[in-house]
Design goal:
By secondary structure, this protein is mainly β. The protein is 0% helix and 54% strand. The protein has a single domain, classed as Immunoglobulins (Immunoglobulin-like, Sandwich), CATH 2.60.40.10.
Length: 81
């Protein structure tokens, strides 16, 4: 296996208020279809994450930052171009 650049996807960097008190979070992004959600792996709550989308995706995506119990700590909509 070789490490390589994935040119089939595009990434967006998101930021949130990390002062919620949770040490670890999972970031969820709404997909192209209603009810479709994708998530990152569990990560430190440092207020910064990258999400990737299909290369041809354009539009808005609802983002939720959740603690490990599933509580929404922060949310917002990003425009992916």
């Amino acid at each position: 296996m070789a490490v390589r650049l994935n040119v089939e996807r595009k990434a967006v960097e998101i930021e949130w208020d990390e002062t919620s008190g949770a040490d670890r979070v999972v970031v969820y992004g709404q997909g192209e279809k209603e009810g479709e959600w994708h998530n990152t792996s569990e990560m430190n709550n440092d207020g910064l994450a990258a999400l990737s989308y299909p290369r041809d995706f354009t539009g808005s995506s609802l983002i939720e930052v959740r603690d490990l119990d599933g509580n929404v700590l922060d949310s917002g909509t990003v425009e992916v171009g």
